[in-house]
């Protein structure tokens, strides 16, 4: 199947009555706004009527769950599950995106790409097959009117993509893949010469070349296959022929960064940990920690 055929199939999923109604509603909202891209991505509407404010709130609520953010639209605060600026601020000192072609793999609703706009990249492309997160992006971007491209594609489509990238972000994806080395090779295939990948993953904080393979779930998440030690992650990257494995940071995932809010209608980190020992998941595995790395294409 070609990329365009895949795109056409995914676009049909956006044509459900629910999403079609949202898109029609957005077309009627010709609202001017200014934006700021601090920890909270803020859309500041001038002379927003009570009626339009209510419509914005109704659309936002209909698009729950909101995982990445937060966002503010005038008085409407979308308090997302993740305080995503914590991750972005870890990476920020290492970013040089000016005039670069940049991809965000597993971009969710585009929060990180919106945060990248002040860094003046030449082009921003997000990849994520999630239909609801694509609609969240369309909702925010309808008013920001950026040139960000949102592709309803996954990392497996990168080798077929029309062009390559100078910088790729792949944040919180690799442990969802049953073949992590294959995924790293797909990332490498999509890089320009001397391109770089910023990657983060949960890791097991012990010495050795090991990866945890959860029996059913890890932290109540079913689609997690391998959680490596840092040494094992480095070995994966070397097998994929990456160079210059650089550890940027490590961090425990805590209730400041990930927590239940009214914008997700479900469980979050506090429900995923052992109530008697917060250093363990509910399954008895080590509690989530993350490592942030940069790797290069030779």
UniProtKB/TrEMBL annotation:
Keywords: Transferase, tRNA processing. GO terms for molecular function: transferase activity. InterPro entries: CmoB, Mo5U34_MeTrfas-like, SAM-dependent_MTases_sf. It comes from the Bacteria. Its EC number is 2.5.1.-. It is an enzyme of class 2 (transferase). This is tRNA 5-methoxyuridine(34)/uridine 5-oxyacetic acid(34) synthase CmoB. The gene is cmoB.
């Amino acid at each position: 199947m070609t990329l365009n055929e895949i795109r056409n199939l995914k676009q049909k999923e956006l044509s459900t009555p629910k999403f079609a109604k949202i898109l029609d509603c957005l077309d009627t909202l010709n609202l001017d706004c200014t934006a700021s891209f601090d920890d909270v991505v803020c859309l500041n509407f001038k002379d927003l009527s009570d009626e339009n404010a209510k419509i914005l709130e109704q659309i936002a609520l209909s698009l729950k769950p909101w995982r990445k953010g937060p966002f503010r639209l005038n008085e409407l605060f979308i308090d997302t599950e993740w305080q995503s600026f914590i991750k972005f601020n870890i990476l920020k000192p290492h970013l040089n995106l000016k005039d670069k072609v940049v991809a965000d793999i597993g971009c969710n609703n585009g929060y990180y790409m919106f945060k990248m706009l002040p860094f003046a990249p030449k082009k921003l492309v997000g990849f994520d097959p999630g239909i609801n997160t694509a609609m969240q992006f369309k909702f925010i971007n309808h008013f920001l009117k950026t040139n960000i491209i949102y592709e309803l594609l996954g990392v497996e489509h990168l080798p077929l993509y029309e062009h390559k990238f100078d910088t790729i972000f792949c944040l919180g994806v690799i442990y969802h893949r049953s073949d992590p080395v294959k995924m790293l090779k797909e990332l490498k295939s999509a890089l320009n010469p001397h391109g770089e990948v910023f990657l983060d993953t949960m890791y097991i904080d012990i010495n050795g070349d090991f990866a945890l393979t959860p029996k059913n779930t890890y932290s109540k998440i079913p689609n997690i296959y391998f959680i490596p030690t840092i040494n094992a992650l480095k070995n994966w990257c070397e097998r994929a022929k990456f160079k210059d494995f650089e550890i940027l940071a490590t961090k425990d995932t805590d209730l400041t960064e990930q927590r239940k809010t009214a914008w997700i209608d479900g469980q979050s980190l506090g429900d995923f940990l052992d109530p008697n020992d917060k250093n363990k998941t509910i399954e008895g595995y080590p509690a989530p920690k993350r490592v942030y790395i940069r790797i290069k294409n030779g």
